[in-house]
Write a structure and sequence with these properties.
Elements: H1 10-20, H2 28-48, H3 56-74, H4 76-85, H5 101-112, H6 124-127, H7 176-179, H8 182-185, H9 195-203, H10 206-215, H11 224-235, H12 243-248, H13 257-268, E1 285-287, H14 302-305, E2 313-315, H15 337-345, H16 355-366
Antiparallel strand pairs: 1-2
Helix pairs in contact: 1-2, 1-3, 5-10, 5-11, 13-16
Length: about 375
Amino acid sequence: MSFPYGLQNSSEKVCLTKIGKLPRLKSMFLRSIYSCVFFCSFIFSFLFCAPDFSSSQNKEQSLQKTLGAFLLADGWDVLEETKSKIGALPARSPGSESDTEATVNLGRKIFSDRNLSLNQIQSCTTCHILDGRQAGTDGQSVSRGTFGQIGRRNAPSILNVGYLKVLFWDGRKSSLEEQAVVPFLDPLEMALPSEAELLNRLNADSQYADLFKAAFPGSPSVSIASLRIALSAFQRTLITPSRFDDFANGNINALNYYEKRGLRTFLNLGCTNCHEGYMLGGSQFKKLDTVYSYNPNDQGRYEFTGKDEDKKFFRVPSLRNVTLTAPYFHDGSVRNLEAAIARMNHYEAPREISASEITEMISFLKSLSDKNREN
């Protein structure tokens, strides 16, 4: 087996080798007993069989390092903190209880319909690509609209959007239903002139009459209200459970040693102060121009609230699928995750984050990816 960073002497390696070979017992009680036996054996061998150390301080440091490695190799310690500070993604997103197969099917067609843009070549999937490894984004710093208009902000991932309580980088909408029509009418996106024109486009496609009737038998007419419901229902199905969720649900072997080490670093550095809950972000707003310069014409949340204290504040993004959704930040100005983490160090971390810690955290962040898109 490969050994964790910093483990040098033979007693440390023997201990972790034995831990790694523990049977995957279904009973936590039996595994705890098994682990305890090996751990006590290790402490005995460490104290009485290990080579001499140059000083008691070196011996204490080595023991502390190995104790930490033991806990990570077993995983129970970091699991308990994960459950309390993050948690696993629920199986269904809030509000999906009343969604039906018919409303989801209608929403799926609307989401991918290019005829609902002014020049009939752009759909929601243009900026929120669902197939392949794009993970609900388009991979661009900022998206382009129907006639090549350059947008102001990076298109966030649409995956798991049903779990979010605030939407857009400035948080100007609080539900999928409120947000649903915005892209169709935005001049920098699909650029339709009015809701009336959106209805005209829907009525021009004979398939919609049957789809609306099936989805809303009590009020079968094509309407903006029904569009909002259907589009939201489809988006609530875009759920991406990950190996991290398996771990948070109690499967201690779902993450390897290095991913657990990265998770421990993530927790120790206080990253959950902003990237909190099972979405690992998405509900707070933070100011981002205190160190690096961003677009001076983008005032962030202030443009929605009109409050001076909201100038340059943007929504903290969710970290789910983060290794698949570059570039980063509201303006898409950072192309790789290493640079993004290093940049955030200047804003939030109480100390300088080392290169090895960044590598560790990226190992953990990869475990947040959709199982079907794992990188």
